[in-house]
Fold these 3 entries.
Entry 1:
Amino acid sequence: MNILVVGGTRFIGAHVVARLAEADHTVTVFHRGKHNADLVPDSVEHIYGNRLDLGAFREEFLSLKADVLLDTIAMNEQSAQIFVDTMQDVAPRVVILSSGDVYRAYDIMRGYGTGPLQEVPIRENGDLRTRLYPYRGESLRSDDAPHKHMDFYDKIPVERMLSQAFDTTILRLPAVYGPGDHRPWGYLKKMLDGRSVILLGEESAHWRFIRGYIDDVAEAIVAATVNALATGRIYNVGDGNYCTEREWVESIAKAANWKGEIRTLPEDKLPDHLGQLANPAQDLIYDVSRIRDELGWEHRTDLNVGMKRTVAWERENPPEEYDQSIFDYDAEDRALASAG
């Protein structure tokens, strides 16, 4: 199969591209040339350019005669519109990487939704958010703010625009972890720093959030990309075990050989920097039976196995930049002292 990938060199995309190439598909990647060249096999062809300049490469894309397009980085309406304008007739099918944050449950968990909790696990036809731009505040960030782009992030309009213009397959991904990403860092750093106690909220400790190990998520994307039966379908992806936040922390502790204590306090007794969930009664777990039944995909990596690999990588590759404010140990010690 001849596959054109837009993006495809960051954390998730690089793993997908590698698997497609290893399966002897012809793969061309359009990207800026800034990430993960070591993960991309030599057989992969490269077209270098910026997503915002996609239209300038239309003739080159058409010449590839691709069987399928995989868009890994459609993050907002602007990027989706550029894709729609450029990619007409480039391939008969488009695969889109979306997110489970499109569901209304996501807003309820963050304290923005009203009404009853959403039933879980959430199926692909579940209620979507009615409030767009989930990371936009009451006012837009300044133009020089490092996260300015998040004011315009939203997968809901991306899904709608691309599905109206193309025959699509939409994959709603979970929180993906594994070597190459720093998702456990907020807890792991405390363990590596020798903290004897990790604090969780009493309700948040029981909150369930769907996650997925990078190898399994990549295999799901490959399955949907190469299978024409996926045309016109939406698939949730993730580990169907639905671990709680406490179980997530316990897995990190086991992988790091940390012998400290996980303690819970009422949410209103936690320091502000711990980022309490607005409504931890709303779990964020998705039904993944459709992709299992239709495409034969299964998540295969046990949480503790995946976390062991992830923590080993984290030890060797700590993030160069991270939010220091989430490691306010003095505030945590005061909270523990007040709790007695």
Entry 2:
Amino acid sequence: MHPLMALLQSVDEQGSISAAARALGLSYRHVWGELKRWETSLGHSLIVWEKGQSARLSEFGTKLMWAERQTQARLAAQIQALRADLERTFAIAFDPQAHVLTCYASHDAALAHLQGQAAGRGLHLDVRFCGSVDAIRALNEGRCLIAGFHVPLQPQAESLSALTFRPLLQPGRHKLIGFADRSQGLMVPRGNPLALDSLRAVARQRARLALRDKGSGTRLLFDEMAQHAGLSANDFALTPHEEPSHQACAAAVAGGLADVALGIASAAASQGLDFVPLQAERYYLVCLKSAVEAPAVVALRQLLQTLAWRQSLEQLPGYQAEQAGQVQSLRAELPWWHLRPKRGHVDDQPPKPRVKP
């Protein structure tokens, strides 16, 4: 964090210059001097200086702090990918026995959480966050061994999810690996001041809505939920910029750039927001059938089935460790493919009449 942002955040949280200085382990004189120096450099007041009153951020200071938080949230996925690149490089250089597993995946807090636990077991997860569609395409093009995507629980055979993912996944070629169930919903300011409890309410109130980027699983979920509610994107007051992650959506609401966003409970909690659940969904990992027994994939499956991982996952708001690590078939989990007997197959023939003895 930039030193100025650390000062502003501490003053905002502590309510005084002296308390902020103590929290940062600095002298009052140093903190006061730095704030005055930055005010001179920027040409704007950062603190409302009123004698006998608790220190508080000026409007400019508040905007500056939230702009930095929004930038951090938007860059979080890229920073994490860079960190994973460095970990992979050192793993290969210093531990030839370590497993390295590249995973393209829809943005998910639990996957980021998994990286730390995996590293302690000699499994280095190289996670590249992107949209669900791009993740599966990366798998099919050989750019990764595992992909991550999510769909509503019990998706309908002709839903938008089915129409989107069915052409990308093939029974007999792909295998699913259970990861987690999670909740998607509305991320709103504390107290839910606009009383938003559905997409219809968001549209009716003309609440400023922050959305994920096109191609992401959450954007697809929004389109599907809006369709079911008889709404289109034109019915909503959308913010100008699409957001690259749940964290960025939550930061937009926390920073006052949006009134509401669609996302996951853990992102809402991280920004001090309230959460209104709307849709339970299942997050899957998928690999080619030929890769199910690859050493790195086996190591991942074993980790996902440990009690330690299940307990760790369920500490994240909105998550449950359902079927974690279990290999599953597409047809069993997703009702999008229907086998049709081949023409001339014995099952197509009428039953032979029984001959009485």
Entry 3:
Amino acid sequence: MVAGIAAGIAGCDRQSGGDKQPPEASASAAPNAEGAAIDRSHKGAQLPTLRFKDAAGKEINTAGLKGKPLLINLWATWCGPCIAELPALNKLAAGGKIRVLTVSQDSESAKGKVAAFLKARGGDALEPWLDPEGTAATQWQVGTLPASIYYDAQGREVWRINGGKDWAGTEAAALLAEQ
């Protein structure tokens, strides 16, 4: 199963820019200005209960994350478009209006490196959660990294995006204002 997930999200690579990675589209997904597909086909679905750990073993449960809008970002240290998003995601997290949950899809062998990787790339407001088994990618049927899923304050899905996003742009601000 993990091999299938790894093969499915292997479309992301360091050499390709965010615009080189084709979005995985569904019938209700429309490409945004950057070419990433905005999928609203799951709108209203409840935030699933998932557990992630950091390198020290501290655990977070998504069931306890209601109360403010939540942007879950699945990424990996080996993914060029994922790395390009980190500074803007950090700025969103530092702003405090929404919670940004970055969940690394790196393998178990990289778990001790993710926090330092985030910090070195200006991600000091981002929490280094780990999902080496690919539970989140399976749950949200992610085929491309980065992938972002946005939930309202009540824990209902608003939209999801497969592919890179300019989180500092006006289009992102409009998307994050949606409920």
